[in-house]
Amino acid sequence: MNKPFSSIEILGIPFANTTRDQFVNQLQKRINHHENTFVVTANPEIVMYAQKEPNYQKLILTADYISPDGIGIVRASHTLKTPLSERIPGYDIFMDLLNWASQNQKKVYFLGAKPQVIQQLKLKLTKDFPGLKLVGAHDGYFKSETEIVATIEKQQPDIIFVATGFPNQEKFIASNRHLTKGLWMGVGGSFDVFVGAVKRAPKWWQTHHLEWFYRLVTDPRRLKRQLIIPQFMWKIHQLKK
Ligand code: UDP
């Protein structure tokens, strides 16, 4: 199926240059046509990791769609004078697809996060998205994939959300996506946010593009990870010259 939008490359990663609505719409079409689809939502951290791990970069390039998940990506596209239309956060895609899955009785499988988060997730899904067919859910701290793989193969979900954090979630998807013709997507910490175990920044911080700063001050352990952002910006400015 032809893509209804182009892509813009940033440090070797081609990002979908479209709006959130059009992006989600395209994913819905692919699900309805039973087309096997792999979606990566990439932020500066993922782009930088791919720079230093060529195997991860190769793996990401096998995705059908890569969404610009961080404001850093959109800013970089402007700096490089190839502006992306919109930031498309993974969490927003996750919510839009859950809503749609509920309205259209789609089969969904959830993999990732801590066991107690998965318990809460199941309850909240039944309440918030009653039309969704929950065909399985497993926490992300497993020793063997056997049971997970068997359920996915048997249930043939329309959508599989994998929330074990990068790079593991993309590796899991790349090696298992042949199991069903559905849509596979890595969603990082989205299950935690959905059940309220981790809060998104209040609206003000989001609209001022300071969500990263809010997360940093509320969870200082993220500092090491966030130090990668200035390195990313520096690299982009070098390219500009
Ligand atoms: N996680 C998991 N299995 C693991 C390690 C992490 O399921 O072996 C989960 C973790 O519980 C969290 C998610 O992966 O729900 C990653 O969250 P993080 O905030 O690192 O993701 P981000 O959105 O920043 O990529």
Automatic annotation (TrEMBL):
Protein family according to the UniProt entry: Belongs to the glycosyltransferase 26 family. TagA/TarA subfamily.
Name of the protein: N-acetylglucosaminyldiphosphoundecaprenol N-acetyl-beta-D-mannosaminyltransferase
Pfam families: Glyco_tran_WecG
Keyword set, alphabetical order: Cell wall biogenesis/degradation, Glycosyltransferase, Teichoic acid biosynthesis, Transferase
Catalytic activity: UDP-N-acetyl-alpha-D-mannosamine + N-acetyl-alpha-D-glucosaminyl-di-trans,octa-cis-undecaprenyl diphosphate = N-acetyl-beta-D-mannosaminyl-(1->4)-N-acetyl-alpha-D-glucosaminyl di-trans,octa-cis-undecaprenyl diphosphate + UDP + H(+)
PANTHER family referenced in this protein's UniProt entry, alphabetically: PTHR34136, UDP-N-ACETYL-D-MANNOSAMINURONIC ACID TRANSFERASE
EC number from the UniProt entry: 2.4.1.187
